[in-house]
Amino acid sequence: GVIVSLAALPGTIELLLLTVGSILRRSGPLVLPGRKVRPISHLAVVVPAHNEATLIERCVRSLQRCETSGAGFSIIVVADNCTDETGALAAGAGTRVLRRQSKRERGKGAALDFAFRHLLAEEQAPGGLRYDGFVVVDADSVVAPNFIEAMAQALMKGADAVQCRYEVLHPADDARSRLMRIALVAWNIVRLEGRARWGLSVGLLGNGLALSRETLVAVPWQARSLVEDVEYHLRLLAAGRTVRYLGETAVSAEMPPGRHAAQTQRTRWEGGRLRMLWLHAPRLAAGVAGGNWRLLEPLLDLLLAPLSFHTSLLCLGLLLPWNPGGIISLIGIAVLLLHVGVAINRGRGGRRDVAALLLAPIHIIWKWSLARGMFRASRGGTTWIRTERRKDPTTKPVNQADDKLKARLQ
């Protein structure tokens, strides 16, 4: 009972901290008191793409439709180890394409590092263009019309790094998809709102993020793991830099269309996070013990198991014959229900989303079936495994996606 309670307690504290923070969130634009205003004249929007021929044109069109308020931007597509027409289609859509082929270094992290180093090196050439900020958008995404303008304004106000809202594009209506969407809203929105409310670094989600030029130069993008965004955020924290939350704009991406695609994605994500736990938790714990309290929340975040596993721990704590453990588990379940309820509210869900929670036990069993693959993924490796897409994801025009994003942001 003691072991189970100790395993579940950090996750309960983390969920309580972030859920209450999300409830108490402040609305309004990003404000950074005491930061110097920096000029932002041109942004580099980097789109890493691996065999994204079916979606790259939609992503490019979405970015090209963005509003700006003086800051120019260039779209750079990184066709990374592509064996399809991704590069040609991106070039045909009017973007610059950087082609990369490497059998030794594969993965999104390596593709981003290649692009950033290439763009920074070009500035030294005669007539080279200087970029004041670097934005990352995944190739399967659609951005809100105010995306570029909001990113430029946040960097201009002095933000080291920015993460915007990350939403689901064209969510399916079945119960499994509703459960996944609730989990994604909890991860991508509720937790970031909570961190922002308490003045913490909100983290990076790998999509819809921006880095100031000073940040990228000071902390080069050398993340190579399966969760390169988590790895790079930990490096930013070690360098004393903070990621701010930008809730007034959003990026939306496709959900995995089936169980096999979801299994591939979840195994990669959870395995990568487990590896970050092995590698970085001791250093974070040592920093907290040394008085660096800003590392406590990132440590709690790594110690929080996936919600399916966390729920299993809480239920096990109820079954064990140790009364203090039962009390801790009851408190944890109450916090978990509050967290899920706030996620449903933030995702503008309704009764059908609440009803979908009845299938949570089946979802938990499915997640446990992936545990072996997660442990294998935690051993390392950076192969870019492209998540399966829908058969015809381009049937819904980009302007329809723009209208949905506008409605959600309002």
The tally of strands reads 8
Strand % is 5-15%
Number of helical segments with 4 or more residues: 16
Mean pLDDT: 90
Q: Can you list the strand order of the major beta sheet? A: 3-2-1-4-7-6-8-5
Q: What is the string of helix and strand elements?
A: HEHEHEHEEHEHEHHEHHHHHHHH
Structure, explained:
- The protein has an 8-stranded mixed beta sheet, sandwiched between helices.
- α1 (2-23) crosses α6, α1 packs across α10 (296-303) and α9 packs across α15.
- The mean pLDDT is 90.
- The protein is built from 16 helices and 8 strands.
- It is globular, with a radius of gyration of 21 Å.
- The chain starts with a helix and ends with a helix.
- The protein is of the alpha/beta class and 410 residues long.
Quickly list its features.
single chain; 410 residues; alpha/beta; 8-stranded mixed β-sheet; 16 helices; 52% helix; 13% strand; globular
Which SSEs are present, and which pair or pack?
Elements: H1 2-23, E1 42-49, H2 56-64, E2 72-80, H3 86-92, E3 96-100, H4 108-122, E4 133-136, E5 141-143, H5 147-156, E6 161-169, H6 175-197, E7 209-212, H7 213-218, H8 228-238, E8 243-254, H9 259-289, H10 296-303, H11 307-319, H12 323-346, H13 351-356, H14 360-369, H15 371-377, H16 398-409
Parallel strand pairs: 1-2, 1-4, 2-3, 6-8
Antiparallel strand pairs: 4-7, 5-8, 6-7
